[in-house]
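Before the break, one more example. Copy the sequence into your notebook; we will annotate it together after we see the structure.
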Amino acid sequence: MTVHGTTAAGFEALRDAFGEGQAGDNGGAQLCVYRHGRKVVDLWTGYDKMNDRPYTDETITLCFSVSKGATATMAHMLAERGLLDFEAPVAGYWPEFAANGKAAITVADVLAHRAGLSSFDPDSWIAIRDLGDWSRCVDSLAAMQPLWEPRSAFSYHAITYGFLVGELIRRITGKMPGDFFAEEIARPLELDLWIGLPAREEPRVAPFYSERQGLTAEQMTALLGGLGIDTTTRHARATLKTLADMSEGLAFLNSREGHAPQIPAANMIGTAASLARMYAATIGEVDGVRLLKPETVSRATRFEIDGLNAPEDFARIPMASPHRYALGYQLTRTAAPMLGEGSFGHDGAGGRIGFAHPETGIAVGYICNNMLWDGMSGPDDRWVPWTKALRGAVGMAHG
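Here is what the structure looks like once it is written out:
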């Protein structure tokens, strides 16, 4: 497999390491690394299988939940400006949200996935193809009763996170989150990164594809029942409906219909170079642009779910690599170690990842189109060689 691109002095080992990681992948990928605001690695390889063409540095790909890190950055920019208070009730910015026992839910609860709104209400379901209807999605969340007692437990808000945080952004700024992102982050940094892809960029997209088979909703129902979990609770029914929608959801997110709307938890599209550049600007200056102050990063990356387990009897599910959340950002975990403690960012379905490590001044973007990573058992095999080489390049122990 031919690896294209450049590496700066001291980072040459990442070329072979990136190639090694991609050797078993018949798709395409990009890897970009910044250090102290300067691009030191910019590599790409492989194939856009669905369009029968090479995967280049100009190829753009869906980022899935890597989108959540960008959405978190927008929230922290507003907090830094004094416009968003993490300890304030969400209803202070969004009065309708107080309905059905949600008046005390704070902005921090939403960012840290402990608000009890991990899925839409199972009895007034928002289907996958409704995700392009912003008003319907946020009105549904404002009206619903939490699926469990907020702050008593933690569960990943896979799709709803983007509407919850995104509506806060909209209420404060008067701008949709994708528009705020374009004006306040992408434009100043000259990024090829969008939440809501313009039609003119659609020809550059490499659709994703999957060579592994996940569990069906029926299999998941049987699995949960076998663990003694009551599958009739609102939380269980909402979770199972989400899983039942997954196949259609992947098809939707792989289409123009799924690229065009603003879905801030899941449909950011762009390049690894732009993802790394964005994270570089959260921890330092990049060509005169800095997104967050050091004290903002320190607050943003404080662990927020210490002592919390999954809701109700979902705590019985064995987790090989539980999520570790700060305020919107993921922290290092077994399945996504990044560069170890001090790292923050977000991974995405199938193997995408973006993160920063302030201590070393490193920021990384990795984008791929082959959905190989399961997100649970350990790090993506494609990451392991270049992560090891990167640690060596910056003088970190490999352990």
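The mean pLDDT is 95. The first helix runs from residue 13 to 22. Try to locate both features in your own notes.
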